[in-house]
Amino acid sequence: MLLIPCPWCGPRDEIEFHYGGQAHVAYPEDPAALSDEEWARYLFFRDNPKGRFAERWSHSAGCRRWFNVVRDTATNEIHAVYRIGEPRPVIA
Amino acid sequence: MAERRNADRRSADRRSPLAGFAARFETASAGGALRLAEIPFLTQLNLRVDAKSPAAERIGRALGTTLPVEPGSAVRSGDLTVLWLGPDEWLVLGPDEGEAEIGAGGAGLRDRLVEAAGSADGHVSVVDVSAQRTTLVLAGARARDVLAHGCALDLHPRVFGPGRCAQTLLARAQVVLVARETDEFWVLCRSSFAGYVAEWLLDAAAEYVT
Ligand SMILES: [Zn+2]
């Protein structure tokens, strides 16, 4: 079980959260201008690194806010949590 | 026909989700180590507003307290309690206003807050959610131990003492937990699974109430 530190509520059990996939995937400025391939790329293609990954989580059984987490996909170590709108922290 | 329907509606009694548990709560409370009871029909308002807006300030004046902005904090003002639910969201608890007040307009808590919100600078919502949850009070020296059977939060008084609240899971059910006094908690849970939570609490309490 992961202990995830919600940036509002503090550390809570993983079961209080929902996973939201890769963070910082911006909605296209002008979706109508995209080709089918570009649109599919936006919809379906995500990074799948072994290592640090910035991803979205929602504290669905708590404060119900979305926030971002930098988690190591190999070790599950959480390197940072930050609120929506805040830049991805630089981790040494 | 329409007249008859209205008459039926008038004669329908309010029934709290845990009305059927009163006797079992009383038995569990008889030993003195624990007190378990339902507080039915509290007025509950979900409030969403930017904490830094003039509207929030006016609502604060109407409540008699500024809205708590520290995560997980609860403040009391007279017979009202204001719980932090999120950075722009609060739950205001007040006494039962009876059936007559619902939607009647005028002197009710909701109407007072709507009036205070004014025609708003920015977005404000005040929604009556009184029927969404019912409230259980769990008090006594062993109250913490009972909750700890199904709640992962650190409930030590140093961390979760009076003035703290949390939305979390109790026995897998979503609840709002409020520390009222050192050994007194309120557990707000959805009406639809209040029966499950009550059964679970009675079971968890069994070893303390012989
Ligand atoms: Zn949270």
TrEMBL record, chain A:
InterPro entries reported in the protein's UniProt record: SoxD (IPR006279), SoxD_sf (IPR038561)
Highest taxon listed in the record's lineage: Bacteria
UniProt-listed Pfam families: SoxD
Coiled-coil regions listed: none
Gene Ontology biological process terms in this record: tetrahydrofolate metabolic process
MF-aspect GO terms: sarcosine oxidase activity
Alphabetized Gene3D superfamilies for the sequence: Folate-binding superfamily (3.30.2270.10)
Classification via NCBIfam families: soxD
Protein name: Sarcosine oxidase subunit delta
Organism: Sphaerimonospora thailandensis
UniProtKB/TrEMBL annotation, chain B:
Top-rank lineage group of the source organism: Bacteria
Annotated SUPFAM superfamilies: Folate-binding domain (SSF103025)
Name of the molecule in the record: Sarcosine oxidase subunit gamma
Organism (species): Sphaerimonospora thailandensis
